[in-house]
């Protein structure tokens, strides 16, 4: 029979989900019904993680138990550390992150037990808890610095920053930067059926363990059209180099037949301003007050101003997305551009896990197995090798 042809799922719902709501025309994003702006202002990352995973905001006691659970699963097996040591010094940290998450599947054979609710909870806790450790280890490895072990008495974000930055003496996390990164983590925690989440669901639908499924998500997020965009934005701003060069750059984007893109602009779902980008602009001001302004900010602001007035971008409804300003903040905070996609993967792990849990417990879900429109040769007979021309 006739089947739907919908490359890249532009018009196909692949699942039912009760986690995240997006209205792309109005620029609305809600986690479990709560507007992203309210969560960014009033909540914190682990509370949002609880909300996404369990569907409701935690009570004081529930949050305490959850936080305690996460902070006590932050260590990785020493052999995981040795595994990471096997990479060359110039390995991209996102590549190290993905492979190491995949390796966890071998470290936790109990994770195969995906029909057991308690086991799923343990694996999800481990994933959320260990992601910052693996991320920081990846970075330290590429810098040739000794690994810093987790400190369980610190907040999720402060612990991560300490593992990243501690070099001798006592590293003290700046409270404004801690808060800023926490907000950025909230903004990145979930975004319904994006490329990486769809990958996690697709791989997970084979009933493989969640480490293998989440590793697929990291792989998808590594790409420059997805989580790699924040890194690409920074490189683009550096290439432009000066405000006076912007018009020339814009001209190239418009004439380039898709070859050159304005990175950090456009979105499959948002056809108006990305609500996350609005919050990020405010966070940027707070961070720059502490770190000093990122000199690339002027180029970014002018680029946005020109693009939002340019007919090409207006006609296509291309607005800044979450990645347009996040890289500027990360750079001001002292992160290398290679770490930007990693900084996206840490909080998105929560969304991947919430969506994986939802998929595994959904009776209507089966193994993902799309169909195709066959365009190859019709039936023909095998020709002996010596008779081929
Ligand atoms: N710069 C210039 N032109 C663009 C851009 C851009 N950033 N994005 C889309 N267009 C054009 C595109 O060439 C096409 O033009 P035409 O109709 O003349 O062929 C039109 O706009 C529609 O774009 P599309 O490629 O059909 O849209 P899509 O939904 O397939 O792609 C996207 C969405 C996010 C991949 C794309 O906008 C893009 O590549 N943006 C740059 C990369 C980026 O910032 N990614 C981050 C996405 S948000 C968070 C995340 O996932 O990490």
What does this structure look like?
Belongs to the citrate synthase family. Pfam families: Citrate_synt. GO terms for molecular function: citrate synthase activity. Pathway: Carbohydrate metabolism; tricarboxylic acid cycle; isocitrate from oxaloacetate: step 1/2. By secondary structure, this protein is mainly α. 55% of the residues lie in helices and 3% in strands. The chain contains 17 helices and three strands. It has helices at residues 36-42, 45-54, 60-71, 78-85, 93-107, 117-143, 156-165, 175-188, 195-204, 210-222, 229-240, 246-255, 275-291, 297-309, 311-315, 323-332, 340-360, and strands at residues 20-23, 28-31, 34-35. A hairpin with a 4-residue loop joins β1 (20-23) and β2 (28-31). The mean pLDDT is 95. Carboxymethyl coenzyme *A binds next to loops. Residues 194, 225-227, 229, 253, 258, 261-268, 316, 318, 321-323 line the site of carboxymethyl coenzyme *A.
